[in-house]
Amino acid sequence: MKTFKTLMTAAALAVTLPFAAPAAAQEFPLVAGEYMEVSGIFVNDGAEFQYAQHLADNWARLQEHAKMQGWITDYEILINVNPREGEPHIYLTTTFAAFADAAEQERRNAQMNEFAGRSVQQLISESGDRAEYRTIVSSMLLQEYKPR
Fold first, then answer.
1. Which helix (H) or strand (E) holds 66?
2. What is the phi/psi pair of residue 40, to 5°?
3. Which one in 70, 73, 119, 138 has a CA-CA gap of 20 to 30 Å to 33?
4. DSSP class of residue 19?
5. Domains located in the chain, CATH noted
6. Residues 8, 13, 15, 19: is their CA dihedral positive or negative?
């Protein structure tokens, strides 16, 4: 991974440094795309149905609302069919084009709370209740890159 970070840093520097080569030869061959948040979830034995019900009912409904508002472009529930020891059982992904600024995030939060029909305190409490049978074990922010 350090090699890729080094490559990306070198590419960024290459774009900013003046060279005698044609401009096209200086362009980095990949162009940045959308972001994807990935949460890894561990589900306690026997709670798979309970958590699946939450994902199918509440989580997906809120994600669809965010998608209809244009805040996200996609979301997925991915099951790790053969998890190794310590690996998440479920990955939840949310894809979006750009980050919202602070004011926009506040507006979205208020609208989402209204859509959910619950206060922030209720939503946090419900998340805490789910901690009895599921644990968020990882979180990543990835960015798509495509060839030019």
1. helix 60-69
2. -95, 125
3. 138
4. -
5. 31-147 (3.30.70.100)
6. negative
Q: How many angstroms separate the Cα of 79 from the Cα of each of 11, 87, 91, 93?
A: 35, 11, 6, 11
Residue type at 59 in one-letter notation: W
Sheet holding 30-43, edge to edge: 74-79, 90-96, 30-43, 134-147
Task: Give the pair of three-digit tokens for residue 52.
Answer: 């699946």
Q: Is the pTM of this model over 0.85?
A: no
Q: Where are the alpha helices (DSSP H) in 17-59?
A: 23-26, 48-54
Whole-number Å distance between alpha carbons of 21 and 43? 55
What is the per-residue pLDDT for 1? 55
How wide is the angle at C-alpha 56 spanned by C-alphas 52 and 57, nearest 5°? Answer: 115
Query: What distance in Å separates the CA atoms of residue 72 and residue 35, rounded to the nearest whole number?
Result: 10
pLDDT in tens, 100-133: 999 999 999 999 999 999 888 988 888 889 999 9
The mean pLDDT of 44-65, rounded to a whole number, is 96
Look at residues 15, 32, 33 and name the one whose alpha carbon lies nearest to residue 24.
15
Q: For strand 74-79 and strand 90-96, is the pairing parallel, antiparallel, or unpaired?
A: antiparallel
